[in-house]
Each structure stands twice: as structure tokens, then as C-alpha cells.
Amino acid sequence: MLPRRRRHGGPEMKSYDLHKAYKNLPLSSGAVEIAYLSVYNPHKKTAEVFEQCVLPFGARASVHSFCRTSLGIWTAGVQILLLTWSVYYDDFVSCEVPPLTRMSDLCAESLFRLLQWDTSPDKPTTFGSIAKVLGLEFDLGDTRLGRFYMRNTANRRDELRGNISSILEQGSLPRKECERLRGRLQFASNQIAGKGAGRAFKVLTKHLVNNRSAVGDDLKHALLFLRDCFLDGPPRSLNANILHLWHVYVDASCDDNKVGLGGVLVSEQGSKVAYFSEWAADEMKAIVAPTSKNPIFEFECLAVLLAIKTWSGLISGCNLVIFPDNEGTKACLVKGSSDNEVGMAIVDNVHRSLDEMGCNAWFERVNTASNISDGPSRGEQSESLGVRFVTDATSVARSALVPWGSVNA
């Protein structure tokens, strides 16, 4: 008779932050003799000299030395105590199944005590489904369903909101402060799904390049969007499907007033699984490009959106490599923004759809001669391309572009 397997919940995490880490590493006897800091005292209106006995915080050599030390602690935990943990500077994150969390915690805490390292008291004292590290929050609550989330902590979001609110109240954003704000926002954006802040970052960068201080209307709207919408965006997510990869080839053709859209879905094994081939109806052409004489860019962008909508049931949660053969289309999708109003609306819809499906997309250009979707974009149909999907391209265009179409009408 087989023994009954113990059932338990999903894995749990706990973070350990070394308390005043740099102050635990003294300088060598040879270095102490030359380790002095001169600091101006505004009260006494004179410079004062202080002896440095430990690693100076933030110095490049200090970081290198400390990283070697923290790596040594991590190695001891892995090889001697068989801990399942990771390290980033002075933050250690341990992950374990519930029955073993107490033993894992005992081993980690004992290792720190043996090496005479204190851990920060403000960190959680027990394992749980959520761990906070360096302003990030890891959520394992849905791991049994194959999903993992990573987001910015509430403190980090509140801090960034406060910084933006202060800038808006003052009406000024000097170059140095702009560089600092942009860097912090870009780091925070790595934990927020999608490229919804593409246009806002573009305005912020333009303000930085122009070396201005006054906050204009464009910058004001960008900062308001970042503060009120973007920072509360959906978290980054990973799921079991992320182990799978799809290649999506798309193309559009504009010949003799005929517009065609084509796409081919290829598996990671190189098999052609599905394709679509559609001619644009007059209604769709009126929506996408009512005045443009050569609307190839707009329709190349639309082909990407049509492919994502058509195969959403197959590619949801997976890695994607999307191949248009138009350099402008690729550049806009990578940046998440476009100076073309129609292109911008489609790019927004592309990234919003990818966010909703939890897809991790990479955009790359394929040479026209190598684009297997060139034929379908010109009406060619073949069983060698897989199963043909019939799409409603007009409805997809209408859902993405009706506001623009109504304005242009």
C-alpha cells in the first residue's frame, strides 16, 4: 500500500535584510590610517575631520567588497544548510514549502547569528505568501494555479506620488531632479505590466533634453498620468505558460487600392500552426486611414493587433516574438508610443491586450523576402500554413479606432 502523500499549500517566502550591513565590515589596519572624511559643519562654519573605521556606504570598492561577503553567506547557506534562497546586495529571500518553513527560518537565523550579523527588525518574522525586498513585493498567493506576481510596494508608490505632487505644486522640475525622478519611475515601471507610460516617459525625456525647469502643459499631463494611473497599474505576472514560445509573423499589403492583412502563427518547434488572410473592407479603410494615400504603416500596426486578438486563446500567458516587416511598426511597438494618432491608438490596444493576456512579447523586424505572412496578406491561402482562422478585421479596427475615426470624419 502506497503511503498517503501530505498535502500542503503553495511555497512561502521570507526576506532577511542585514541591519546596517556596511558597518559590520571594518577597514583593514592599513586602510584605517588613511581613511578620513572632511565634512563642512554649517553650525560651526568650519570643516571637521572624521575617522572612518568601517566600509564607507555607497563607495564603489565598498559595494564590491560587501557583495563578496554576502555571496559567501549565501554560499554557506546553500551548500551547508541546503537553504533555498537568493541574495541581492544585503537582502536574502528564502522560499520553502509550508512544512519546512520553520526549519528553514531556524537555519537562516542561526547562520546570521553564528556570523554575528543582525537582521532588520522591520521585516516580517514569519514565512508567508508575500515577501518585500528593495521596494518590491513578491506574491506567491496563486502559485498553485501557476501564477506569480511582482509589484512595487505601497511605500514606494506613495513616495513617488508624493514626489510628483510636490513637483506639480512647485511648477518646476530642474534637470538634476528630472534625471532622478525619471530613473526611479523607470525602475518602478519594470514591476508594472505593459508600456502604458511610453508617451509620458517620452515627454519627461524631452523636458530633460531641453534643460528646462518650468512645468509646461504636456509635462503636467504626463506627470498626472504617471501619478494617478500608471503607478496603480497591474503587476508583472508570470504563469506556467511562460515556458512556451510562439512566433507571430504579420504583414499588410497595399496594391491597386486593395489592402490585405495576413498573419502566420509558428510554434517553438518551427511548425506552422495557423494563419489568417483578409482583405480590408471599405469601412475598415475609412476607419484606419480615411485621408492617407499610403497607409501601409497603419495597416502593418493593425495586422499585429489582429493577430493578437485572433489567437488570444492559444498565446495567452506565453512568450511571444512578433515579426512585422515594417521598421516603423517595430519601433513604435518597442517604444510603446507613436507620433501618428492612429498608430498610437493601435499600439495602446496591442499592449493593453498583451497585458490582459499576461504575454511577454519581444518585437523584431523580419526581412520582407523572409516574411511567411507576405502571401496571406495578398490573399494567398495554403494548407501548409496551418489552420485558417477567419477574422473580423473591421470589428477589431472599429474597437481600437472609432474615437479617432469619429474625430477624423
Automatic annotation (TrEMBL):
Phylogenetic lineage: Eukaryota, Sar, Alveolata, Dinophyceae, Suessiales
The protein's name in its UniProt record: Uncharacterized protein
InterPro entries recorded: DNA/RNA_pol_sf, Hepadnavirus_pol/RT
Superkingdom: Eukaryota
